[in-house]
Amino acid sequence: MTDPLDLLQLRLGHRFANPGLLRRALTHRSARRQHNERLEFLGDALLGFLVAEALTKRFADAAEGELTRLRARLVSGEALARVATELRLGEFLELGAGERKSGGQRRASILADAFEALICAVYLDAGIEICRERVLHLLGPALEQLQPGEALKDPKTRLQEWLQSRALERPQYHLVSEQERAGSWRFEVHCRVPALPEPVSGIGGTRRAAEQTAAAAALEQLQNHA
User: Fold this and answer.
1) Across the strands, what pairs with 202?
2) Structure pTM?
C-alpha cells in the first residue's frame, strides 16, 4: 500500500530515511503529547539562518537593516503559510478533533508552524546541506522577486503609499488573537483593505510585527492583481 505521505515527500523533494521525523513534524499539539513544537523551534532558527545566508550572497552591498527587513518578509508567518499551502501541507496534518473541526488545517499560524517543523525534520534527517537545498528550492521564487532597496520602507508604509497613490482608503488593522507559549507571544492581526475581498492575516511576536506581516501580504496581493 502506498504511504499517503509519499506525495508530500515528492512535492518537498526529499524522501525521509526516518519517516518518524516527518510524522512528528506534521503532528499538532492538539493531537497528542508527542507533537511538533520542539521541531518548530529549531526550524524557525534554521530558516532564519539559511535565508540570511542567501540574502547576504544575493545582495552583497545591502546594509544590515535592509537585510533584516528582507529576511523578516521571507520568513514571516504569512509567507511560510503560503509555501505550506503550495505544498498542501494541511492535508497531511494530524490535528485534534476540535482543531480540525474549526478548520485548523487551513489556519495560517498552524501551517507556518508545521512548515518550520518540516524544515527541521529535513535537517535532522539529512543534514544542513540538504536542508539548505530544500529551503532555497521552496523559498527561491520569493527570493528572486526581491529587489535591492525595496525594503528600506516598512510594509505598512509601503502599503499606505500604494493605496494613497490610487486614492484608495487607508488599511485597517484588527487584532484577532494573542497567545503566550513557553514565555513568548504570538499575535495574529487582520489587515482589511477595501480593494481586497477578504482580510489578510499576519503573524508576529509583537502586535506591530504581525501588522507589518499582514501589510506585506496585502501589498503583495494588490500588486499581483494590479
Assistant:
1) 189
2) 0.68
Q: Which CATH class is domain 5-145?
A: mainly alpha
Q: How many CB atoms lie within 10 A of CB 160?
A: 16
155-224 CATH, one of 3.30.160.20, 1.20.120.420, 3.90.420.10, 3.10.150.10: 3.30.160.20
Residue 97 CB partners (closer than 8 Å, separation 6+): none
CA distances from 186 to 94, 145, 176 (A): 21, 28, 11
pLDDT in tens, 38-85: 999 999 999 999 999 999 998 888 888 788 888 888 888 878 988 998
Catalytic positions, written as ranges: 44, 116
Residue 30: CB partners within 8 Å, gap ≥ 6? 95, 96, 98, 99, 104
